[in-house]
Design goal:
32% of the residues lie in helices and 27% in strands. By secondary structure, the protein is α+β, with helices and mostly antiparallel strands. It is globular and about 85 Å long. Strands 12-11-5-6-7-13-18 form a seven-stranded mixed beta sheet, with helices on both faces. Strands 17-14-20-21-25 form a five-stranded antiparallel beta sheet, with no helix packed on it. It has three domains: 225 residues, Nucleotidyltransferase, domain 5 (2-Layer Sandwich), CATH 3.30.420; 102 residues, no CATH class; 134 residues, Sandwich (Substrate Binding Domain Of DNAk, Chain A, domain 1), CATH 2.60.34. The structure holds adenosine-5'-triphosphate and magnesium ion. The site of magnesium ion has 5 residues, from loops.
Length: 491
Amino acid sequence: MILHENHRLSRNSTIKDETGKSLEAMTVFQMSIKHLLDQLMETLNTQMVDPMFIKDVDFVLTVPAIWGDASKMFMREAAISAGIPTDQLTIALEPEAASIYCQYLHFEKEDTDRTDEFLKEVSTKMKYMVVDLGGGTVDITVHQKSSDGTLQEILPATGGPLGGTTIDKEFTSLIEEIAGKGIFEELKKESMEDYLDIFRQFETKKRNEATSKVRVTIPVTLDKLVKKKTKGGISKLLENMAIKSNVSYESSSKKLVMSPDFFNDLFKKTTEGIMQHIDKIFKTDKLDDVNTIIMVGGFSECKIIQKALQSKYKGSKRLIIPDEAGLAVVKGAVYFGHLPDVISRRVSRYTYGIQSWPEFCPGKDPEEKKIKVNNSFRCKDVMFPVIKRGEQIKVGHRKSQVFQALKPNQTELECAIFVSDKEDPRFVDEEGCRQLGILKVPIPAGTSCAEIEETIIFGETEIQFTANQLGSGRIMSTSFDMLDPKNLPDP
Ligand SMILES: Nc1ncnc2c1ncn2[C@@H]1O[C@H](COP(=O)(O)OP(=O)(O)OP(=O)(O)O)[C@@H](O)[C@H]1O
Ligand SMILES: [Mg+2]
């Protein structure tokens, strides 16, 4: 499942499968996690002498660092409904897990010298960029080791929809260019097996840079569908196309044949997009002192992308690709499960604020925000900032605010929390601001005009909340629902 930066899942969100049928996203996530959980427990119980139960295991689920708080909450709810107890579950950010893995490096054999050098430097506060190249996204962060051995995030994660599947899309476009736009929709209806098969084949071709012609078998169903429209089939269609000098069709073996240069060029746009993104980060974030790039994620194992980055950064940056780059995240997540305090500082990706209605300030506040409450004028919808975008936060950083119940018989205190991509938003209804959720604190019966201190805890992988009653110090229960469909529709 690919979710991008501003993707917002709510409990009502649905996901479409390859055939266009929808299912609730929560069900899809829950069943996927349940399947992994069942497989794990089965494997453990066939390999261990003593029986293992869910209660014996701590679970770590990884999410891309560009996911927002609501998506992480969604993942946690899905895991809980799959049967993982919430107090045995940690959510880890993928580039952090990869970075942790790189602290316990296992480089490819020929890189042994560089490994020693890297480990020596990393212990002396070196900053390094982690580039996680996955299936759907590239996720980039910059980390630094501190003197106490923990890792600090120097730059919050940014990323975009570039990864291994972007190459599959290039291949899809090629077939559509030859056989017509809707060809894969037709193929899926005729034979899903053949549709999956052509991409399974392409997956194996993607692994290496082509030095000779690349051949992909065209499934019988696809061949038939094309022949239904054009008698001579793919060969005939190619005759009139500009790409015919690079792409041909072998009727005897039913194979599409691509010249090595043409095949390698399918990676060009993605590779360039990734490098542009890296360059932009180096330029805009003044990272002159970052000389090392660590590449992780499955797509980092792709020889073409490795070569492109190596030649681009030769002489200026050092490129490190750990052994089993594709497993760096999952193996790092296991370390994270054992060492949850290994990340000491993170950088806030958003400005977090509380919706407030301060006294109206004539001349300063816009007239349209003026509202009369009781006997005074207030300025509505002000975003009172709690944490600013780009602020470096220590793990466990707490921000508190005191709220007072206005009526004696009030049963609940509500506080709307907003996030913004801007550093200094003024109002909660500005562009880039969205409601994250409403923090609700029930007030026990018989408490009159309670003063409640609400605390937001930042810096962990997931945002947390606590509340206590001033005076008595009594801890109140809180609920914060980020998945309410009313919060925001999916973009
Ligand atoms: N040796 C390889 N050569 C080329 N591509 C590869 C290789 N190994 C894996 N990939 C590609 O890497 C992608 C999978 O990478 P990975 O497992 O890191 O993704 P993911 O973490 O599931 O996705 P994301 O991080 O985007 O959510 C697939 O698109 C796959 O085709
Ligand atoms: Mg990934």
